[in-house]
Amino acid sequence: MISRIEELSAQRQRLIQDLLARPRGRSWCEEHSNLADEVILELVRDLVPSASEIAVIAVGGYGRRELAPYSDIDVTVVPENDGSPETDSIVRRFFQGLHDAFGTYMRMSVGYAYRLVADAAGLDGKTRTGLLDARLIAGSPAVFNSLQDALDETFAAGEFILEKIEERQAMFAKYHDTPLVVEPHLKEGAGGLRCFHCANWLRAAIGEREARPHRAYDSILKLRNVLHAQAGKQVDLLSRQRQQEICEVLGTDPFALMSEHASNGLHVHQHYLRAVEKLHDARFQLGRGCVSIRGEARILADADAGEAAVGISVATLLGLRVPDLNPGTPASVNGASAAFALSRGEATVRNIDRSGLLEQLLPELTACRTLIPNDSVHAYTVFEHTLRVVREIESLDPDSFLGQLRDSLYDVEALYLAALLHDVGKLLSEPEHPRIGARIANNIGTRWGLSPRVTDTVVWLIEHHLETSHVIRYRDLAEPGTARDFAALVGDQNRLSMLVLLSYADVRAVGPGLWTPAQDAFLRELHDRTSAILSESIPSPAPSAQRARLMRELSGEDASPEEVQAFVSSLPVHYLNSTPFDRVRVHMRMVAKAREGRPTIDVNHRPDLSATDFTICCLDEPGLLNKILGAFYALDLRPQGIRACTTADVPVALDVFTVNFNGRPVPSATAADTTSALLAVISGERNMEALVRERGKDPDRTQRVLSYRYIEGNPGILEIRAPRGRGLPFRLSRLVLRHGWNISSARLGQWADNASAALYLTKQDGSAPSKAEVDAAMLERETV
Length: 784
Hints:
By secondary structure, the chain is of the alpha+beta class. It has 34 helices and 15 strands. The longest helix is centred in the middle third of the chain and has 25 residues, at 254-278.
């Protein structure tokens, strides 16, 4: 096999040289992609004796057969039977072979993923996008088709379309929003290749056939190919210097080249703009309770009011029409969906109102439509003032102090719901409206079925929404007791941020001129002084120093390749799938320390996943996973993947938790606090359940489950669909612990208004729980 791969590597170098002699676009990329296919087919023939048990899939640009000279190779492996020893061995050998073949011989970057058909419901938009362009390279067509069917069945068109358009807008802002630029970004800028890709993704989302690449697209692809080959690396910005170099290859003049490229870019960009315009003529699903028909949102007759509101929010953000629909009384309200929809800005709330849904969801608020405040400072009715409060929160500059506070929140839905309800108590009494409004909000939380934590936060914010403005107007901020009293009131950083934001927006929305520069300065001072007091009880070692110290400790003796290979071989296949090769040696050192009784935690930010990996290594013990997940739950971090590994000789846990903070990597200060808390919980210095309670959560709360399915095997797979929330992994691990089972791995997803989990379960003797045992456990959960 090695000789064949060396031969293919030589072919690749000749292909690149041929490109410089005879520049081409898509036809060259197809030859390059076919060559990469040959490498993978060679690996499959040599390393995968039972190819029918897996599907090896090309995704993204590789799936489209558009590999530029230095594009990444993106491969996904889907097993027919996850968890069997045979499959583990196959996948381990194959991924090691991929790394060796492409990294060592072909000199190409390779990215690989391990997916299950059952993962489809929880996959995020970025992963789904890559799979839209998937094609089978080798293995089982049946497995590949099953994955495609599962993706189709769980496809949320509206949210996907919105995400793609927002991605394009972000790239236009980062690079350029017009093709008429002197130094274009050939992939992501306006008129770049991604405009054509996105146009086809939008067409796929509304059920239309994709467009075929045209001459203008092929010309841009040719430029990108030559740019890569000339630079000897992946470069997509066509700078003036690069233009001159390419012109020497193409034998043309830079001015003529760039003029032609601008014309081609306009053509490609028009494809994207027409695809966006087509959304106004198509019929597609905006959400489970709402569809778009010829640019107009329509609520389905049997729609849940909360789910329909999510559809209206998508329609608003897509610029679709929302008519006065007046859908009547809904059969039910999914409160988590309603809160999610109402947190998407003023325009969304106004359209939810236009549709008649706001009357169904929050009649307490719509009753305030014409209510005149009983004071001389408010410029608007209570209803209009409320919507302007939402506007103030939404319009904060992300780079400002308050904008950063807003974006740091882990529960933004609670802030927006409190903003919408903060003055509804004025229906009954102006002086007592915070207390009355808090009681009304509590009733709404019960009516909607919101979690007690969210409801309590909303109630607390409404009850205290006047406190901040009172303090900055009447208290001496330099007096230590002022900040101490305020810290005692808010209790934690998240409530401090939300109360500060609500107070600011409330005053700003009363009328022009009420918020002054002095109030702005006082608000910042109150926040900073209070935040310092709240932080005193939480040790916060410098994350950079902590990482540097860890790396110094682990880089003493260098390990041989044989030691690394032996270490990797001692762990299950999912460790290899989820661990970059440059981290394996770090983990070896961590295991050595754990065997000496010294737990370590490695923090690795993953911008590609919008998340952070916490690798936790310590001596294994019953209930360890539940302790760790409890700490993440307490600290409001959302796990999205778990890889639990235990070494075979001395039981050392090497567990990788991929978590996010409000949909993005964990901020450095938060990561440092989390590391301290985890070490304290693991060592027994701090009780996990006490930590959960300290953070205002109930560690004994029963997890609400919308549906579940158990797939028997070894391990068995428990698939769960549940409402949005952060406590799902912790509560499920508690259930598993109570029955003495183990979680070898977990997949956790949350997109739009759903949460999903797949837990891989074994018993202490290595067997898997039976379906009867799992059914009994789930029934017991409902009666606890």
